[in-house]
Amino acid sequence: MTFPCMEPENYAAIAKKLHDTALIAEQQMFSLENQLRESLNKPTIVQATTAAETGLINGVANLIGPSFAGGITTIFNNSAFPNSFPIANFDTMSLTLGEGMYEVGLWCQAEAEGAVNANTVRLFSIQQFTPDPTFVSFQFNGLRPVSEASYTLFEPNVGGGVEIAFCGTFRIAAGDRIFFTFSHLNTSSTMRVNAGATGWVHKLSDVSFTEVL
Q: What is the reported pTM?
């Protein structure tokens, strides 16, 4: 920071100049304080389901978690993101929080709604997509996959279900979308994800930084 110095012919105005200099210093300090607070208190959103998501069929990627067909509640939010809106499925989160590096995570419990096929797979995924009108797929037309974090479990035939918690780090651009998905090969019955499934998004950093050279 630099501040102008008094010239000898202006010494009579030194009191006024000291006041002006103090205001400039205070303004600079306030700006630096805001930058420091933002660097230590990055935007974080935590949401949970308020109802079970049922009838999840085998062999496909079922949308689950804070895509939140069963309704959501926002547990924590220190950002401008609207509390009533889901963090997944739409582009509102990335448009609100902006481009950057993000941690995205999911915790949930999945149980069979009938018989369990012993040691069949349970695959949980956090998927990042970006808008691409030329991309055509079975489930995500106009959205091209960018990155994915996944967790795989195998459930024994005891009917107790499985529980997972995992996260991934993503470089997300404004307009990108996050999907929480669950697929399984339990052919004897559909499955459900119990109420209370929790998803979170935490912005780790911006993509670019300003520095003095």
A: 0.77
